[in-house]
Amino acid sequence: MIKAVIVGDPNKVPRYILSKFPQIQGAVKVSMARLVLKLARKIKEEKLSGQVLRNKTGTLRRSISPSVSGSETRTEGKVSTNIEYARIHEFGGRTPPHVILPKRGRALAFPWKGKDVFFAKVNHPGSQMPERSFMRTALEEMRPEILEEFNHAIMEVVSKK
Which residues pair with 70 in a beta bridge? Predict the structure, then answer.
């Protein structure tokens, strides 16, 4: 997360900057929209296309969605996914023991010593998944660009007379 806040006694913040706050907020929203789109593209085209995770079905990659929201005093950009297995890839963790059943057909087939062995179900003991961050690493890589973009947008408004 990257956060920027104007802090301090309002009497000590130059009135000129306070008078420009609506324009600053507008510039920040425009920059935020551009940056969340760029971050989402980076996640999809780099991180989920082989750099961190390989694309198998494309479901996770298609689920990456950017959004911008806020109020008069706050702007929030978010890149998120609603795929439940994204969390374990991002942070790592342990999957619980579970039963694997066939999706099509009546049995599961596994190659074993040159032959296929068939099972009606498999009791999976669970597994330890390593952290394979694709969202946080993309954000961290873009951090200098994000800060530069916001700084430029704010300074452009403030420097206008």
Answer: 75
| Inter-residue contact 49 to 60 (CB < 8 Å) | no
Angstrom distances, CA of residue 54 to CA of 35, 134, 157 = 24, 11, 42
Strand extents, DSSP E, the chain = 65-70, 75-80, 93-94, 98-100, 108-112, 115-119, 122-124, 128-129
Please report, as a single letter, which amino acid is at residue 26. G
Residues in the chain, pLDDT under 50: none
Tokens of 147: 């800060």
The overall longest dimension of the chain from CA atoms, in Å, is: 80
pLDDT in tens, 33-51: 999 999 999 999 999 988 8
**What pLDDT is attached to residue 15?**
74
Q: Are 42 and 141 in contact (CB under 8 A)?
A: yes
Closest by CA position to 158, among listed 4, 7, 26, 11? 26
Type of residue at 8: G
Q: Which residues contact 131 (CB under 8 A, 6 or more apart)?
A: 90, 91, 92
Q: Where are the domains of the chain?
A: 15-92+132-159, 94-129
d(CA 153, CA 161): 15
